[in-house]
Amino acid sequence: MSNSSLTPQPGDFTVYLNVILKRIWLVFAIIVLFSLGGLEVSLIMKPVYKTSVLLMIDRETAARVDHNNAQTSWSSDEDYYRTQYKLLESRTLLEIVYKQLNLGQYEEFSDSEGKKGIAKLENKIKVVPVMRSRLVNLSVTSADPKLAAKIANTIADTFIAGNVNSRVVIAQDVLKILNSTSNSEFSQKDKDILHSMPQVVNDGLIRKYKAEKTELEMLKAKLTGKYTPNHPDILALQKQIDTIKDIIEDETQKIVQSIRIDLSGQFLGNNIRIVDRAIAPEKPYIPNKKLNLLIGLMLGCLVSFLAAFALEFFDTADTMIKNAEELETKLKMPFLGISYIAKLSKKKPEYFTMLEKGNFLSSESIRNIRAMIGFALANSQDKSFLIASSIQCEGKSYLSCNLAVAMAQNGEKVLLIDGDLRRSRLHKIFKISNEKGLSDILALNVSDMDKTAGEIIAKTNISGLSVLPAGITPNNPAELLNTPELKAFITWAKQNFDRVIIDCPAILPIADSLLWGKVINNTVFVVKTASTNIKLAKTAINNLKTAGIDILGVVLTMYKSKGFKYDYYYASKDKK
Fold first, then answer.
1. Backbone angles phi, psi at 573, to 5 degrees
2. Rounded to whole angstroms, what are the CA distances from 32 to 44, 294, 303, 421?
3. Mean pLDDT across the stretch 111-117?
4. How far apart, in Å, are the Cα atoms of 187 and each of 192, 280, 562?
5. Residue 16 CA to its chain's centroid (Å)
6. Which of 54, 200, 465, 523 could connect to 276 by a Cys-Cys bridge, CB 3.0–4.6 Å?
7. pLDDT of 564 higher than 60
């Protein structure tokens, strides 16, 4: 059993539900308040409308598709489209639109502080490409739905017009060369310019022939050192080189002619066009009433739950027992001692508190509790007792295991019984089988008790200590504990062991512990430090008293040690 078992365990969901139900009207009021707040925000917020224009941006027209360099083409396409997206939301373009539409006259685009109006327009624009397509959405938000549509369409129109103009300006220098003379009268300088054009340089076919030409020229240079210029092999290579030059020149002229046609206006077109123009939206984009109501509802639930648990915490903060002095004054019960939290490795079970060195304070506190129980039972012939608490997870099993070990170390023959037929734990702590246990013994006939009970009880590696697990959970735990077989078994156990210790279930809300009190009349009551509610503890104690069960005293469990010091309660007693 890991040391994590010593820490508080989360309760059932019903515990949290009860906290909420306890303050249901507060929870309901806060949820309604926040929901109304969400609606109020929707009414107060100034409506904002959103519209968009859908553009298609094609790759710039080229003379030839480069099939031999697809990867480079894809990379250049990506760069091209990113460039277009940036241009579409560029400040220069927005300045033109701002002046053209005189947006400074509108309050949301007012420009009283210089260039603030352009910055406001930038914040209203958003460019969103459509994945895996050549489409792009240009969205615009505005308090005026018609103005939003007007701005979006104007930006698109201005961008398309600017694209055409830029292409014409770029083409002017090229057209001067192309139209200055015929193809046959190009100077070497003009030819060099034409051959250096991107459409020519990047053409896959031309690049292929240039590579072949280079290889042939290198082979010719190698043969020139061996043969004369008129050697047949050299002449054949030269003829191949000339042929490739002619092919390159022809391909270049085809590209040049295609460019001339495109730039001269014989082939009109634009690579950017509007697919869907923006229209004035009928409903506002902001506020979203349904979303605001949902947010208000969720925040209301969160805040109301936090408020309920915070109030529960503060309501119960003063009702928790934090030290031994409070235990005696508030419960008015004998104090048996403090059970400190032991520092154990994760793989070691809880009862190792009494076995492992280095836990002096924890183990010594268990021995003190053992001594106090001995004093309480000094005049009693029955040395057996129950260990009970008001609710679950208050340290009963930890105390039961370590007290059983401590008493076995004291030379007693001890039987530790897992009395919780609903939520058994001892078999996990001592790593024993739970296939057979208390539930099987209680199903036996009284005549078979002496023979079978000894076979089911498991011996531990601790001398003198035996453990009886709970066994398979029965359908009727309370009925099973309210049978003559339980009394017969406990009678047999007291005859065969010096001490019988029952790790009982919680007293609240079930009555199993009270049924155990019919066969063992003495009880050690457990209170968890800074956790057990005083009202619940008093209710559980009153139930024990009503059932006629003697309470030997109360143990304060899960107490955090302060170094090597004992509880300050004792120090305060000494001062008095």
1. -65, -40
2. 18, 12, 12, 45
3. 68
4. 9, 58, 99
5. 22
6. 54
7. no
Structure tokens at 112: 């009283």
**Does residue 475 contact residue 421 with C-beta atoms inside 8 Å?**
no
Backbone Cα Rg of the chain: 46
What is residue 108's DSSP assignment?
G
Lowest-confidence region among 156-160, 238-242, 342-346, 484-488: 342-346
Q: Would you say residue 575 has pLDDT above 80?
A: no
* Cα distance between residue 398 and residue 369, in whole Å: 13
AA letter at 365: S
Contact assessment for residue 210 and residue 196, using Cβ atoms and an 8 Å cutoff: no
Kindly give the residue spans of alpha helices, DSSP state H, lying in 59-132.
Answer: 70-88, 91-100, 116-124
How far apart are alpha carbons 186 and 466 in whole angstroms? 111
Q: Domains of the chain by range and CATH? A: 3-45+287-314 (no CATH), 49-276 (3.30.70.1130), 334-575 (3.40.50.300)
| Residue found by looking up tokens 């003009």 in the block | 190
Strands lying side by side in the sheet with 135-142: 125-129, 135-142, 49-57, 272-276
**pLDDT in the model for residue 165:** 67
Global model pTM greater than 0.85:
no
* Predicted confidence (pLDDT) at residue 261 exceeds the cutoff of 70: no
Number of Cβ within 10 Å of residue 158's Cβ equals: 15
Cis before 145 (ω within 30): no
Half-sphere exposure of 155 (CA within 13 A, CB side): 35
